[in-house]
Amino acid sequence: MNTLSGQNNLVFTPREVDFFAQDELITIVPNFSILTPRRTFECIMGEFGPFQPNRECQVPLWMALALWKRKKCTIKAPEWMRPDFLQTVLELERSEPGNFQPLPFHYQEIAQFLFTAGTQESLPKEVFGDEEARVRDLVNLIQKTRQTKILQGLSLLQEAAAVKLNNLSAMELNNVRAFFTGALDEFTRHATMKDQAIVQAVGTTQEPPLTPQEEARPARQLRRRTNNN
Fold first, then answer.
1. Which of 2, 122, 147, 176 is most buried when burial is the number of CB atoms within 10 A of its CB?
2. pLDDT > 90 fraction of the chain, expressed in percent and rounded
3. Where are the annotated segments for Disordered (predicted)?
């Protein structure tokens, strides 16, 4: 199998990873209500709501943006995107080279969504207020710090049999997946070649077949020893 084509089958494009992240939930504050018994939206992926004025609820990112563009809600910044929390995460990432701090699986895509979606309508400013620039900087520094740690961990594979990369995000995993699948393909290929070499070596050390004269020679009769009383 071609290693490169095998890797491409397992690696998603950034746009595809971003598409998966659109189903992540985010908190909104609607300014409308729905005239249904439960005041909810029923979608293929579930039921969302209840939608009542000034009452928080969680919806997927794609729904939040659609409602926000129609001026039907405001979007609240996730708790993990508070500047004080991000500052703590950054300090821990820098002080613990062997560990990755737990963040939402799609933290990069969620942040990118809030920073760029609806930019012309000033969504980032509405969500983060005066802390927008600081939040952007902290998220960017966290991403760069984690990326450096990932590269350092991968470099250790030359000296170690295993590397611990825990709490990686979807985009981070996607970036290293090609490396790991390629490494596993190479390991499998070398292991197969080694097994074949062993089989060939064993085959060459076997005893040669008997000649016709040796096969015709009668078998030697062994005398059974008896005990003399």
1. 176
2. 51
3. 203-229
| Count of residues in the chain | 229
Structural domains in the chain, sorted by start: 24-76 (3.40.5.50), 82-202 (1.20.58.1020)
Locate 156 and state its tokens.
Answer: 């250790």
Among the listed residues 60, 53, 4, the one whose alpha carbon sits nearest the alpha carbon of residue 31: 53
Interstrand relation of 41-43 and 73-75 (parallel, antiparallel or unpaired):
unpaired
pLDDT tens-digit series, residues 20-38: 999 999 999 999 998 888 8
User: For 79-91, what is each residue's pLDDT tens digit?
Assistant: 999 999 999 999 9
Does residue 105 contact residue 169 with C-beta atoms inside 8 Å? yes
Give 115-167 pLDDT, tens digit per residue: 988 666 688 989 999 999 999 999 999 999 999 999 888 777 655 556 677 89
Full-model pTM: 0.73
The pairing of strands 46-48 and 25-30 is: unpaired
